[in-house]
């Protein structure tokens, strides 16, 4: 028998409560698995290589009676999130031992897939809900199932499937393809990284690079000098540390802006957006971790009419059918050319996964680049 | 000589200050005019029949150094706003004595047109600005010049040119034609009339009727029982008095909503809008009359992303070139059929115009229907 530790979802945090390790999520080191003999039931056995702590994980922790954009977790089952796995054995024709796969996977080392135990939408024993019982337009996160991805064969590290080629990169890509009016010479504001404000960008690094590829000027915010340097290295024209320079002052200095991805500093952005421009709001909702009464309240909403602005909220799964093909065609080709880069911030060991997740959810991570929990590989 | 009283713009109110009669605007009864001999200089002489106090008048009072959506007034010149005039004499081929005209006109009884004294964009003696010096996308309100309108010949009162056929009606029409996703059986929330909140609808009566013509369900808010009854008479399915029932409670009861015109109770609307729907924000900015620190702050902005909402701010002049023809083709025909109705709240005498204007700007008017200052006619 082989040890198979997992990160278990213990208890739902209250509305506006930041989850706590030991109280809401916990590492359970006791499970074991017989890798050679565990029945596959027509499925396949995977070994987790990397896990991606992502903001939607917080949304999935809420009580299922609260309508939101994701289906929720089951208490007592493992956390589920995007990850990269290696196939060890398979009984399926379209999946082979040695394949790499990317998609939603439980936070444990070895898994018989497709994994159903923690999947709320699967209507089996003791499961409280069925897909059709969810509020309309709730996205079934578990439908983002594992799929085989090309073996990069050394052209890029596997971790890119979680950063540039994962949901963070796809979010920025979709934002530009579907929503941003990306015109050469216009200025875009890309925000990321602050806590306490309403909304944060999901992949500021990808957004910066896509904006530069389209010939835009980029104003970008981050919460540390190291992150500011990283943004500058990616091509941002005016990166600034919002802990040293206020959003209002920075945008007054570098603005006016024509477009806004992310909306971290949506209020300051509303003030700086030129008339008839657009704010595209995606990604993290740090407001989930703040009690409703303490949530940041927008003071510049009246400018939406005065400036004839358009605000668009989106989540990436809504656009996957339309844009995933184009994304996989264009982005991997740009990576080896060096036209799209990213840094990943690796933490090793599943035992560290709970803490890395909390750091991502509270937005206070000092990590430069996409946080990734490395289990094996690379 | 004939008396020609006028309403003069005396002093710019501070940011967030409600203008006061006697301090910021004042009736000047001293001017006179020689109706038979005043030189027309190739123009025409008009007599004002009706004036329309409108919210954009407040925006035009601001200091010109503050960028916004309108050009500003000149201190010492008359207030300018939409009105209906009768042509008394003309030296122009396309304008004849006896014609009715609708458009921007100074708040006085008799005027040699085209009027230029108070028009900020006209670059003559002692005028501080030229059109090209305004911030981009500032709309030159004075370009909404008087134009000849058909004599209704008793089919409808002239006052309809200010309500259903004027900017209030046009705003709702444009909202529906260009921006609202008006589908049969869906629910729309039309708000109006409250003070203290961010944004108010401009013509809730027209919006209600257009929504009903398109087979939508209409939830509508107003600030008095008389207004609620009026909304019900126009076809609103769930009109409510927001002074008796909170927006949150009302929308929880009558929602969820698919669309939102106006945005008076934008916050409650964000909470009630179903995912992937749209809020269209037009019309009054009562926030102009409230000090910035006391402005209503939006608590539900995070829902823009979670619900994948689209917020669209607009002002009607941006859409006039595209939609004015269709508007004048469709709406006058629907009025005699009784398919589009409106009430007008008439106050007689230019001496009452300043007070009626302030009532409109502070949103506290108890008037049911469109407030109109009647000078002569009908």
TrEMBL record, chains A, B:
Pfam families: ADH_zinc_N (PF00107). InterPro entries: ADH-like_C, GroES-like_sf, MDR_fam, NAD(P)-bd_dom_sf. The chain crosses the membrane at residues 66-88. Residues 205-321 form the Alcohol dehydrogenase-like C-terminal domain. PANTHER family: PROSTAGLANDIN REDUCTASE (PTHR43205), PROSTAGLANDIN REDUCTASE 1 (PTHR43205:SF7). SUPFAM superfamilies: GroES-like, NAD(P)-binding Rossmann-fold domains. This is Alcohol dehydrogenase-like C-terminal domain-containing protein. One of its GO terms (molecular function) is oxidoreductase activity, acting on the CH-CH group of donors, NAD or NADP as acceptor. Keywords: Membrane, Transmembrane, Transmembrane helix. The lineage of its organism: Eukaryota, Fungi, Dikarya, Basidiomycota, Agaricomycotina. It comes from Tricholomella constricta.
